[in-house]
Amino acid sequence: MLSWQRGVTLIELIAGIVVLAISLTLITSVLGPLYIKSADPWHQVRAAELGHSLMNEILGKAFDENSNRSGSVLRCNETGAPACSSAAAFGPDCADGSASCPGGPLESRPQFDDVDDFHGLDVSGNDISNIFGTDARLQDVYRAYRVQIEVSYQDALSKRIQLRVTTPTGDVIEFAALKGNW
Predict the structure, then answer these.
(1) What is the mean pLDDT of residues 21-40?
(2) 125 band by pLDDT with thresholds 50, 70 and 90
(3) So where does this one cross the membrane (predicted)?
(4) β 158-166/146-155 pair status
(5) From CA 94, how far away is CA 113, in angstroms rounded?
């Protein structure tokens, strides 16, 4: 008894390949953008951790360069106390403690002692470190992140701290807080 076996014709094979190619193209075009966006929540969590940590560091500092750090009853700008720093003087102070240091060295982050020293801080990549400026692990974790800080007067008794963390995907996570003069 002879049995005839039937094979696949060339036309059926080509049609199968075309259908498979079309279906794979549709699947990858749908999953591609999802794959790219899948890292966003992870970057947002990292940015939130970094922003929260920096904000805690800043809020732990004195209100002003002219504030008494030993718990005096007087605050800057009160009768009998020195005036608070002007907004034009915000930013790192002179490293040697002098009033002006044209071209001289400024305080580095471990030396920041009041809120407005952080004004204008713009660090990214390998410049992101802990409060002591020593932890290389943070540099590895936050290599493609960027942090920008602005400090301004909200009113005579408070300073507004605006902190922006930019993730590697370009998302900007913003934080804001007030530091009171009390």
Answers:
(1) 80
(2) confident
(3) 13-36
(4) antiparallel
(5) 12
Whether the CB-CB separation of 152 and 48 falls below 8 Å is answered with no
What token pair was written down for 52? 């929260």
The H-or-E segment that residue 22 falls in is helix 10-37
On the CB side of 104, CA atoms within 13 Å amount to 12
d(CA 146, CA 137): 16
Q: Identify whether the C-beta of residue 44 lies closer than 8 Å to the C-beta of residue 173.
A: yes
Element housing 172 (H / E) = strand 172-180
Cβ-proximal residues to 106 (8 Å cutoff; 6+ apart), any chain: 91, 92, 93, 94, 95
Q: Are 44 and 51 in contact (CB under 8 A)?
A: no
DSSP for 154-165 reads EETTEEEEEEEE
Secondary structure, 3-state, 100-155: CCCCCCECCHHHCCEHHHHCCCEEEHHHCCCCCCCCHHHHHHCCCCEEEEEEEEEE
Q: Tokens for 22, please give them.
A: 């079309």
- How far, CA to CA in Å, does 85 sit from each of 95, 152, 158, 173? 17, 11, 12, 29
Give the pTM: 0.73
